[in-house]
Design a protein that fits this description.
heterodimer; A: alpha/beta; Rossmann fold; 2 domains; seven-stranded mixed sheet; B: alpha/beta; 10 helices
Amino acid sequence: MTIAEALRQALREEMVRDERVFCIGEDIGVRGGWGGAFTVTLGLEKDFRERIIDTPISEGGFFGLALGAAIMGLRPVADVQYGDFLFYAMDQVVNQIAKMHYMSGGKVRVPLVMRAPVGATGRGAQHGQNLEAIFFSVPGIKIACPATAYDAKGLLKAAIRDDNPVLLFEHKLLYGAKGARAESGAVDASSDIPNEDYVVPLGKGIVRREGNDVTIIATLLMMHRALQAAERLAQEGISAEVIDPRSLVPFDWDLANASVMKTTRAIIVEEGPRQGGWGAEIAATLSDTMSDYLTAPVKRVASPNTPVPFSPAMENFYRPDAERIVSAVRGLIGSA
Amino acid sequence: MGYDTKFLLSLYRKMLLIRQFEERVKYLFLEGVMPGTIHQYQGQEAIAVGVCSALNSDDVITSTHRPHGHALAKGLTVESLMHELFGKTTGCCRGKGGSMHVGDLEKGMVPAIAIVAGGVPIATGIALAFRYRKEPRVAVSFMGDGAVNEGAFHEAVNMGAIWSLPVVYVVENNLYSASTPIFEMVRLKRLSDRAAGYGIPSVTVDGNDVLEVFETARKAIERARGGEGPTLVECMTYRITGHSRRDPCNYQPKEERKEALKKEPLRRFTEYLLMGGFIDEAGLEGIRAEVDAEIERAVESAMAAPDPKPEAALEDVFI
């Protein structure tokens, strides 16, 4: 099952399970439409007509509506077609949604899920940003980043059942959308999905590949690139451990720390500008708290501090790939 | 008009409570006793009281950076409000909100939204929830005149309109967005004309006449409750206090201010009650003494309440 299908199944199951759950967004339930920009809600309107709410092109407005509905006890899932459009909703997300629980002294609950596609994918500067870092610095929002279909379903279900605002970043190259909505350069992130109900708890990472020489921490598309890199490194006799934190907030420090204790070296791979990236925070914290174990500086592989370029030649230069991860690891091992 | 005396006096008491509360807070602030900043409601009391008196207790309002009047009108206690203004754990937001975020969802008031027009989408979403659950409840979004120039206002009112949601948009036009005259910032003579762009009805009323506000709100609220959708209500008023702390209002022309003071709502309603024989001077004095005593008790208990543990700042980010 692909990520798009797994997310759709999660929405369907949660809507069956809990009548407070509904979806709100643009083009998500139009008959003859696409089921959102990446087919995630395709067909759900047939079974949940009143609960797949198509909005005007008003991101700031409908994120606010979702908040209003959430504080009244419903459990909205609001999505934008492209994460870049979250900037239109920024006041609602950052000033209202993230702070409502805190400002109320912990009395008001905001069980709200926000879904946002990210990733540089041939669409240039305004439809290809990775926004994790921007929201990573806003207290009050949980952030999940599924790299596989299994995690996509489990994280979305956990997010829907959580009483806090959760932002789910989905990568456009990982959806596995088909037909007219298929992506060139897509990566297979499909998984076997068990029949029984499950969640992937927010804040719980996973070891994707075990290794002893270096810890590579990566999410979304970069997790797949990190696995490719680890495979190549293995041929050179370097044993890389790949950690997928799956959530950025809360962050699974126990998992990252345990891995660094074993490997004594860490690299964080992030698609998104290096400056002020979430990787910078992870690197700084590991350097601080794990200094007794580290035998080399913590390194980062990230995109340069530029907008996302369009031309495939430039975009491929911009976005980190397996080769850049491999050479960063080589540099790190060599420096030890 | 056929209002019974008890109802009229309840309106009066609430308006007076807001006025006296704000005046007391103003002095506490100027004395340096109260922390933070404040945006006060003197001169606009008829709007909060008129509208909230037409609401049921389980109807819900959103408010603004100027929320004390809405809070008292919607039924928050003087004590819970005063304690919050002093930053005490015993306040309505446990000291985490402060003046600009007072509220209590159990009383039907969302913690106030201090970003201009930020509460308009939220109120619309609350109305969406009422519709979703088929509950006969109504949301009211209070906003200042400046809010009609925000994109959030446009997006939210449009969605309220297309889905005929049970929400009423109340614009309190006090002529100034902070210090800027609103009619330099729109080409309209009435802000309520904006409603035509969304295909919803609207009305501009004398926001200093509590009974006119009440009647207008009652109709708009019943219309919303009946499934007929939103109304935009513009209430003309005047802020007879500063925009925020220590604002001398030098941008308000002296003549305009003088005229406005003659038309301020509490004075007008007091005259109405006396002229109509609903109460006499002694009766008014009695209500005033009660109100002042209630406020004084809240001030004393708030000042005596312990400050929060500093580390409590770390709580309530997530559940």
